Backbone:
């Protein structure tokens, strides 16, 4: 049995007197230590799926089990990185991280908790911004604090909801490589599920990419393994054969799904409920769909 | 140079316009005093009141005291009543904010009690406590606590889902969630409530002092009306206005400080 087993998840939300189905029959297995990226257009139900997997909300039907136990709520060993940072504005960077350490490492003394929070912030390069509040930090720095907060609790399970979605391209790349470094430095398997709308980001970070096909209700497409050694770089991915193969598969799956819904599909996938277009691929080499 | 001139003339205008407003009001007052024989003119009001203003801390009798001393009594009473109202209103606001059940239970009652005038609560206070001082505090507290309850409740409801998710993800205890998330997130709303509550408390004090005849600005106003010294009515009215304005500004400053966090 895999570390995370998801079987037949269905979820709908009440909408205008009726119900809007969001997820239908979603099943997924994630191995211990695996990094899975769920890729899809905005508004396709990715966040809903992730919050169910993390135990933040519950499914209408279907089961989620982690490490053989059915999921009943947020697990002790799980951490979450939100797209909009979700830092508490009245606390400094250090206090934000300390709050997480205090809640998860109760056996440590206050001094040890503080030292730990400090150390993790230093690891993400914020050693000189410990006492600044979120509004005094740039978007990239805020997300660094959020990542530090997640890693400070020493998690076995990490959920990331478009962690770099709100950042500019350069900051995103820096943070992606820092995340890779952090993941490999903890010295134990951290099972990670990340949702993203960027195929490149998924290629860069994950072991396996699961396309989410927009519905409604959304379903999962055929997953594809990314058989590339870790420590990948954007430049390397541009040239790599295997990477192009994976990219082509994911983009084709997603655009085909969208094509079923809309008469004309492009590489840029937009969701009609959203005013902002959901860019699925920032591929420097657009995949030909013919 | 031109710009500096324009800026400094803008600043002068900023100070001048309110003065023009006050001047016009004084003119209307003076005009009215020509028509209404009992209404003292601004000059006569000053003549008859200057003793109270120039010797603000003089104590000549129980109600015949300097204006600052009278204001002090009123402020103490308002402070006590306001603190009582806030001490009751804040926890109730938090409770209603987190519990839709309690809100549904008490909302109709609150809507009915909110518009009741302080003049109606005061006799009930006198019946309950038999003395004018606690009755006045009762009236102030009951009338002034509504904005605190409602704004605190709104503040709790306005906490973004993100913060609740943080509490869930970090598995914070109920106490920690309350102290580190709910209270700081609600603080700006709470202070808006406090500011409105203090405004109401100040409105109630005058009415309650008038009815109970206790020393203070309101008691002074009523006594001077009965003694036919009309200039002092105007003195009391102006004092009430100025103090109310200053209180509101002070609370506004505290509120502004919190909003920038």
Residues:
């Amino acid at each position: 049995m895999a570390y995370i087993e998801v079987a037949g998840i269905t979820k709908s939300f009440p909408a205008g007197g009726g119900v809007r189905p969001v997820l239908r029959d979603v099943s997924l297995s994630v191995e211990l230590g695996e990094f899975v990226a769920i890729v899809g257009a905005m508004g396709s139900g990715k966040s809903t799926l992730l919050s169910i997997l993390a135990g933040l909300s519950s499914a209408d039907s279907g089961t989620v089990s982690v490490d053989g136990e059915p999921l009943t709520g947020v697990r002790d060993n799980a951490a979450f990185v939100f797209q909009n940072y979700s830092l508490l504005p009245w606390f400094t960077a250090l206090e934000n991280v300390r709050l997480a350490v205090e809640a998860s490492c109760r056996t440590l003394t206050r001094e040890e908790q503080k030292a730990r929070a400090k150390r993790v912030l230093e690891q993400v390069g914020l050693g000189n911004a410990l006492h600044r509040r979120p509004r005094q930090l740039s978007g990239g720095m805020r997300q660094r604090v959020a990542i530090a907060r997640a890693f400070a609790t020493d998690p076995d399970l990490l959920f990331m909801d478009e962690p770099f979605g709100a950042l500019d391209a350069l900051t995103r790349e820096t943070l992606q490589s820092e995340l890779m470094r952090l993941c490999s430095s903890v010295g134990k398997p951290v099972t990670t599920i990340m949702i993203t709308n960027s195929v490149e980001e998924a290629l860069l970070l994950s072991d396996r990419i699961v396309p989410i096909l927009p519905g409604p209700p959304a379903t999962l497409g055929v997953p594809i393994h990314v058989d590339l050694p870790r420590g990948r770089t954007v430049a390397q991915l541009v040239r790599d054969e295997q990477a192009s193969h994976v990219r082509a598969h994911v983009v084709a799956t997603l655009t085909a799904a969208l094509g079923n819904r809309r008469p004309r599909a492009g590489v840029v996938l937009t969701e009609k409920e959203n005013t902002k277009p959901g860019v699925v691929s920032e591929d420097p080499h657009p995949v030909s769909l013919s | 140079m031109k710009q500096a001139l324009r800026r400094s003339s803008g600043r002068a205008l900023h100070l001048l316009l309110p003065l023009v407003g006050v001047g016009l009001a004084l003119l209307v007052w003076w005009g009215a005093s020509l028509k209404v024989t009992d209404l003292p003119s601004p000059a006569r009001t000053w003549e008859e009141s200057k003793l109270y203003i120039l010797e603000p801390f003089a104590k000549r009798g129980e109600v015949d005291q300097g204006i600052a001393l009278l204001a002090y009594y009123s402020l103490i009473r308002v402070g006590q009543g306001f603190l009582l109202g806030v001490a009751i209103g804040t926890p109730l606001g938090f409770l209603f904010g987190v519990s839709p059940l309690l809100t549904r239970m008490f909302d109709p009652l609150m809507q009915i009690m909110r518009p009741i005038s302080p003049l109606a609560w005061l006799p009930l206070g006198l019946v309950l406590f038999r003395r004018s001082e606690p009755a006045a505090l009762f009236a102030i507290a009951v009338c002034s606590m509504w904005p605190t309850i409602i704004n605190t409740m709104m503040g709790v409801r306005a906490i973004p889902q993100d913060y609740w998710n943080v509490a869930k993800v970090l598995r914070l205890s109920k106490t920690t969630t309350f102290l580190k998330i709910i209270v700081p997130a609600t603080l700006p709303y709470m202070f808006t409530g406090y500011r409105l509550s203090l405004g109401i408390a100040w409105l109630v004090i005058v009415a309650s002092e008038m009815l109970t005849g206790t020393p203070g600005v309101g008691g002074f106003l009523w006594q001077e009306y009965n003694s036919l010294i009309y200039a002092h009515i105007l003195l009391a009215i102006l004092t009430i206005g100025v103090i109310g304005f200053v209180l509101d500004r002070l609370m506004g400053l505290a509120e502004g400080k919190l909003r920038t966090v």
About this structure: Helices of chain A lie at 46-54, 93-104, 110-123, 139-152, 169-185, 199-205, 234-239, 241-261. Chain A touches chain B through 22 residues (CB under 8 Å). The longest strand of chain A covers residues 18-30.
